[in-house]
Amino acid sequence: MSTFDTWLARNNGAWRDLDGAYGAQCWDLFAAYCVEVLGAPLSQTHTAASGLYKGFAGSLYVSFPTSAWQGQAFERIPAGSAARKGDVAIWGKEPAHPDTHVAIVTQDAPAGARITVIAQNVGHTQDARIMSETPASLGYLRPKNQQPITGETNTTNEEDQMKCILQLNDEGGLNYFDGQKLHPLSDPDQVTVLNIIAKQTLGHDLPCFKLGSNAAPWGTRLREAIR
C-alpha cells in the first residue's frame, strides 16, 4: 500500500482544519495532502495573496506557483486532460463551485470523464469524503514525485539510481556522484541540501557510503572509469 493509499483511508470521513480558520475548508485537505504525503512545509501550501481568486482555492492554479515549494513539487496540467491518481483538481467560480474548489483525485480517469476525488466542505457537510465530481474546470497540479502515490520507485533512469554521497578510499571529505561525474563537497550543509532535493524528487535521502581504501583503491578506479 502506498503512502497515498494509507493517507486516503485515514482521511475519508475526517475533519481537517490545518489553519484553525473557517473550519474544515477544501484548502485544508489540500494542505494536509501536501504536508503528509508530499512532504511540504505547511507554510508553503498557501493560496495566492493577490490576483484572480486571491485567497481562494482557484488561485492555486491561476497563480501557480503560489510558493517556491509548489513550483518544485507540481507540474500544471490543463483542463480537459486525463486525470491521474494523486492529481490536485481545481475548479474556478461556477454554479457547482461558487467559491472555487480543490480536491485530490483518487483514481485515474480519461479526458472528459467524471473523476473520483476525496474532497472536503462539499454540500451540507465539511467532512472529507470520497465522491464523484466533474472534471476540473481550471486544471490539475500533478506531483512530480509519484513514488508516494504509486508506491513504486522509478527505475527507468539508471543514472538517477546511481546518485549518492561517497567517501573515496581513505580520503577526507565527501563527494557527490551524480551518475556521471564526481563533485567534491566542501561543507556538511551541502550534503543536507542535496538530501532535501533528493527527498522531493526521489522520495528518499541519497545513499552515503565509503568506496574503497588506500589498500584497495576502488575510489581511484571510479575516477578513472568516469574520466
What does this structure look like?
Helix content is 26%, strand content 20%. The chain is α+β, with helices and mostly antiparallel strands. The protein folds into two domains: 148 residues, endopeptidase domain like (from Nostoc punctiforme) (endopeptidase fold (from Nostoc punctiforme), Alpha-Beta Complex); 68 residues.
Layout: helices, strands, pairs:
Layout: H1 3-11, H2 26-36, H3 59-62, H4 68-73, E1 74-78, E2 88-91, E3 101-105, E4 115-119, E5 129-133, E6 139-143, H5 147-150, H6 158-161, E7 164-168, E8 174-177, E9 182-185, H7 188-201, E10 208-211, H8 218-225
Parallel strand pairs: 7-10
Antiparallel strand pairs: 1-6, 2-3, 2-6, 3-4, 4-5, 7-8, 8-9
How many domains comprise the coordinates? 2
The CATH H-level homologous superfamily of the largest domain:
endopeptidase domain like (from Nostoc punctiforme)
**CATH topology grouping of the largest domain:** endopeptidase fold (from Nostoc punctiforme)
Order of helices and strands: HHHHEEEEEEHHEEEHEH
- CATH architecture annotation of the largest domain: Alpha-Beta Complex
Specify the biggest β-sheet. Answer: 6 strands, antiparallel
Identify the strand order in the major beta sheet. Answer: 1-6-2-3-4-5
Tell me how many strands there are: 10
